[in-house]
Specification:
With 154 residues, the protein is of the alpha+beta class. The protein has helices at residues 4-26, 35-63, 72-77, 83-91, 100-107, and strands at residues 113-114, 118-124, 135-142, 145-153. Keywords: Membrane, Transmembrane, Transmembrane helix.
Length: 154
C-alpha cells in the first residue's frame, strides 16, 4: 500500500469528522460531552468505507460501456464501437450455423484476418482500466459453417 492511501483516508476522515460534529451540534443531538467521541468513531469507521466506495465507483464507471443489439448499418459505419454489439452476436448465437459468405455478407468485408477455419473482426477498444489493445471477434468455422464466436484482446 502506498503512502497516498492513508493520507487520503485521513483527509476523508477529517471531512467526515467535522461534518458529523456540525450535524450533531446543529440539531443538538447527543450529549455535548460525547459529540467529539461519536464524530471520531464514525469518521474512523466511515473514512475507509468512503475511500473504497469512491474507488469502486471509479472502477465501475471506467469499465462501463453500453451494450446494443446488433445493427448491420452501425457495425459497418462505426468499426470503433463494434464491441458494444458483440455481446448480442455472441450471447444470442446469431452467427452460429451461417456460412463464411453469409457472415461476410452480414458483417462486411473489412475483417481483420481470415482463413478457411476462422474470420477475425476488429471491434475497437473495449473500455477498461488497463486495455491498451483493441479487441477482436474470432469466428471459428468448421466445414464452412460458424461453430463458435469469441471475443478477445489482440
Amino acid at each position: 500500500m502506498s503512502i497516498e492511501v492513508p493520507i487520503i483516508i485521513l483527509i476523508l476522515g477529517a471531512i467526515i469528522f467535522f461534518s458529523i460534529k456540525w450535524i450533531l451540534t446543529r440539531f443538538n443531538l447527543f450529549n455535548p460531552n460525547w459529540r467529539n467521541e461519536i464524530s471520531f468513531g464514525l469518521a474512523f469507521i466511515l473514512g475507509p468505507i468512503v475511500y473504497v466506495s469512491i474507488f469502486l465507483i471509479f472502477i465501475f464507471t471506467a469499465t462501463y460501456y453500453p451494450k446494443k443489439e446488433f445493427d448491420k448499418q452501425l457495425w459497418i459505419s462505426n468499426p470503433d464501437i463494434r464491441y458494444e454489439m458483440t455481446g448480442d452476436l455472441i450471447d444470442n448465437n446469431r452467427l452460429i450455423g451461417l456460412s463464411k459468405n453469409e457472415v461476410i455478407n452480414l458483417l462486411g468485408e473489412d475483417y481483420y484476418f481470415s482463413t478457411d477455419t476462422s474470420i477475425n473482426y476488429d471491434v475497437g477498444f473495449v473500455p477498461g482500466l488497463f486495455n491498451i489493445d483493441p479487441d477482436v471477434t474470432l469466428i471459428k468455422l468448421r466445414n464452412d459453417k460458424v461453430v463458435e464466436v469469441l471475443q478477445h484482446e489482440t
